Amino acid sequence: MPFRVRFARRGPSIPLEIAIAVLIAAAGVVTLAGVAITGEADRLADRTGLGEAVFGGVLLGASTSLSGIVTSLTAAADGYASLAVSNAVGGIAAQTAFLVIADLIYRRVNLEHAAADANNMLMAAMLVLLMSLPLAAYFAPEYAIFGIHPVSLILFAVYFWGTRQAVELRNRPMWRPRQTDETREDAPDKEESQIHSLPVMIAIFAGLSLVLAACGYAI
After folding, report:
1. For 21-70, what is each residue's pLDDT tens digit?
2. Residue 112, φ and ψ in degrees, nearest 5
3. Counting Cβ atoms within 10 Å, is residue 100 exposed (0-12), middle (13-18) or buried (19+)?
């Protein structure tokens, strides 16, 4: 008898072969959409004047994380607490590890050297802070308000505070990284950013974000 997969709140079970096919197809679409949305994000960063560091760390980071976010939310809604948490933490670990591959692809110098930017440093520091808060909560006394630990709310507050500081940092930098011959300047490409009108570019970016979210649900 073939294996079958049963979802907690999704009605009848489906064959394992179909479940695997859906997983592979959704992962493939995430890959293609991720490549497409990166190019669109670069053009929007130039068009809006936010810059690659701010746009990538805030809007692109949130959009490309939608598939993982929806996956964790769906798993949590179905009662799979361990799957929801492990997906979120594993996603962060995997993305961090894949920086090694990105560093190998960028052949000239160390990737962080080429991307020396105050906003990148700020977002990296915020990531360390966000990851340390759940660890601190784990060793703190158990406490919850309507089933929600206060650290969960603090995580949201720190994230939104950090993104606001990242936007303000571009206009009022507290320090500047030392520029070298290998530092890649974020020079807007005016011709590339004028391919479509701003509403069309936003619509494309939003549409690709929805595709990533739908794939997360399928996964």
Report:
1. 888 998 888 888 888 888 788 777 777 777 777 777 777 777 878 888 88
2. -70, -30
3. exposed
